[in-house]
Amino acid sequence: MNLEKLKSFCAFNVKDDVVLTDFYCCGYENPVDYYSDIVNTLLEKGQTLGEYVHDLLVYSDSPVVAKCAAERTPALVRAIEYDLSVIKELVSLTSEQFRETLSDSEILREMPAYDNGKFDYDADYFLNFAQKNGTGIFAKYRAFSFDGELKPILKTDSITLADLKNYEVQRNQVVENTLCFLHNQPAQNVLLYGDRGTGKSSTVKAIFNEYKELRMVEVARNDINVLPALFEKLGKVNMKFIVTIDDLAFNENDDRFGTLKAVLDGSLALKPENILIYATTNRRKIVRETVADREISGADAIDESMSLSDRFGLFVTFMRPDKQTYLDIVKKLAKDMELDIPEERLFAAAERFSSRRGGRSPRVARQFVEWLRGRIELNLEY
User: Fold this and answer.
1) Which residue of 148, 201, 254, 334 lies most exposed, with the fewest beta carbons within 10 A?
2) Containing H/E element for 372?
3) pTM, whole model, 2 decimals?
4) Which CATH number does the domain 143-318 belong to among 3.40.50.300, 3.90.1150.10, 3.40.50.10490, 3.20.20.30?
5) Contact 349/381 with Cβ under 8 angstroms?
6) What pLDDT sits at residue 290?
7) What is the mean pLDDT of residues 74-84?
8) Under a CB-based contact definition with an 8 Å cutoff, are residues 95 and 50 in contact?
9) Residue pair 156/86 in contact by the 8 Å Cβ criterion
10) CA distance 236 to 270
């Protein structure tokens, strides 16, 4: 194989990959060093060469592939097919054959072989993958944080809609809005309001886990000023994004307040159609009032809060449960966890637990049932 081809890729942005660079450099200097790096990398990853280059290509940030996935043209397809032909030639070259082309060094002959594996993918495979999953970082990860820089979240909360009990009316509103969004129908930005521990944030996370075609970006409330930059970045990506802001609240004269109002509805720039904001708050008035505010004009302060709330097309309220609802949630969670305990005893323990936690809520109910399961497993008093 002519190793110069490894610098001739036209569609996939992989020329600077460490393994492909090691292959290329093997033909020029210190083949022992570069070959050992190839073997070390593949052993460390536990992959064959074919598996390695598959992941490299499928997760590459390649504008040509993204463009072709959106609209296939003969020239773009040919460029992709050329790159794949180079990769197939590389993978078909066994490590023994490769070492023979480098030198007759005894050290090279004694070094371990790497496993070539197979690579038999065509352009259709990568284009279909890109259409469904995107390219680059958005193909490899689904959840991100953004503080001016987009960072993947490697491990996310696995909570599902089935894990959440009661509050069906509230959650169905969010589910239906999300389905409209995913099916290119009119959908609204959502503000989930209510008491602490009632499942607002959990609902958003469960929605994310329910619909795998969604991507989610978490923005801390202190970083709201970066939203215009985030929208500009995500607006160029052919995928659906929900931007989440948890525990929304503002102080007086907070410039973040104006930024959020503008990106929701009020800026000259059109909000990208592939982005929605799902925010949560436990404050009736999102803008904190000062004593002076209340003395001068309470109505103006309320209007200021409402000017933001009104920009969320969907306002969903989660209120603290009464005793019956709380115990019903406990009962359903205990059933899910297959706890065999008389209902009367279960409810009595749940009430004692909630009194120690300062009140009833779905969060307290889940904490109680998880605590109870541990006590039962260890045969401890509860």
Assistant:
1) 148
2) helix 362-377
3) 0.86
4) 3.40.50.300
5) no
6) 46
7) 97
8) no
9) no
10) 13
